[in-house]
Design goal:
Helix content: 10-25%
Order of helices and strands: EEHHHEEHEEEE
Structural class: alpha+beta
Distance between the termini: 31 Å
Mean pLDDT: 82
Shape: globular
Strand content: 25-35%
Strand order of the largest sheet: 4-3-8-7-6-5
Oligomer: single chain
Length: 206
């Protein structure tokens, strides 16, 4: 299995997420077509709703514990169960990002980044056919004023009752508080592997 865990099947899972490890190829430019007759102006596109416009549950955003628990809960579920994507949108600041570190066959590493909408689009189809449950196993927290860094050890399973996780790793979660609530700013994750097992200090909370 490829080591791309938000968070299976030629895809990688981590906090989410299941994230395609396939490299994208650039499209070949098409030969320019002759000018066509002017078309009627298109109707203006409906702007995307900023993440901050989605109503958050109070319990999800009142504390660091609440928002981290909500982040794990919203991506977890059996195969075929629709996720509450509006709940996920409500957790992230409009500028929020999700990023995964993965190894290439040549031993180098690459960073794959996505916005919340990219994450949702990439994982909706996968979650329809693959069960995915992710839980926090341990946590290290650093706090300074309105910013918090949570180094969260995750365990990923295909079924909630599985005895062993199929993947573990670290979710590096950046949070900030605007005086009213907590927001997820960034989630960066890296799965453990044979060359990089989780050290003991990240297997217990402190």
């Amino acid at each position: 299995m490829k080591r791309w865990t938000l968070v299976a099947v030629a895809i990688a899972v981590a906090v989410g997420g299941i994230y395609s490890a396939k490299a994208q190829t650039a499209a070949t430019p098409a030969t320019p077509a002759p000018p066509a007759a002017a078309a009627a102006p298109a109707a203006p596109a409906t702007p995307a709703v900023p993440a901050s416009n989605y109503q958050a549950r109070s319990a999800d955003v009142e504390s660091v514990d609440g928002i981290v628990a909500a982040l794990y809960d919203v991506i977890s579920g059996p195969a075929g169960k629709p996720r509450d994507w509006d709940r996920m949108r409500s957790l992230f600041a409009p500028e929020g990002r999700l990023m995964a570190v993965g190894a290439r066959p040549d031993g180098s590493f690459v960073l794959r980044g996505m916005g919340v909408e990219d994450y949702i689009a990439r994982n909706t189809k996968a979650f329809a056919s693959v069960g995915f449950f992710e839980r926090e196993a341990a946590r290290t927290t650093e706090t300074f004023g309105q910013i918090v860094h949570v180094f969260s050890t995750y365990e990923s399973r295909h079924a909630a009752g599985d005895a062993k996780p199929f993947q573990r790793g670290i979710n590096s979660i950046q949070l900030y508080n605007d005086g009213k609530r907590w927001w997820v700013v960034n989630v960066l994750w890296r799965a453990e592997d044979e060359r990089l097992p989780l050290p003991d200090r990240y297997l217990s909370s402190h």
